[in-house]
Amino acid sequence: MTNSTTYSVTVNGVTRELPSIQVGEMGRVPLVELLGDFEFTNAVADALVPLLPENAQVLLSVSTSSIPLAHAVSERKKLPYVIVRKKRRTYMRQPLIQEVPSMTLGVNETLWLDSRHATRLKGQQVVILTDVVVSGGTQEALAKLVERAGGTVCGYVSGFKQGDPRVAVQYLVELPKVL
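Request: output the structure for the sequence above.
Response:
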């Protein structure tokens, strides 16, 4: 940690000063922002590839912050990826809907998986890939969507772990729960 407003983290030789943000009464936490940072996203993706289960056939992630990471890992492993939305889109047809018990930032969310994308999970070994895992609530909700779509979760992978997740996740860097 370099000062009270940032937290220093290095992945594959790329260092970032993560901003410290207030999260309710929980305190201040480091914020991982991969959106718009191709250098850091690529460093994290390169380091995550060896953590993926060998039998992985599809990556599943959630919008928005994990999208660039899912794309970068997908390119490296030549695996398709599916993104679950946090809002219903007008183009969605018969989406699978899954509630997330509680989100990190204290906001309950609903996840939406378009039925067209759900078919891509059927009969597949699916890795749930996220940028950060805290409680594991989002990962559990994603796993329920995989099961409902007819797929099997073969692993959980995240760039960063911050807390005590309820799922067995492979991760690169453990971040402090509070600063």
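The helical segments are 38-48, 67-77, 115-118, 137-148.
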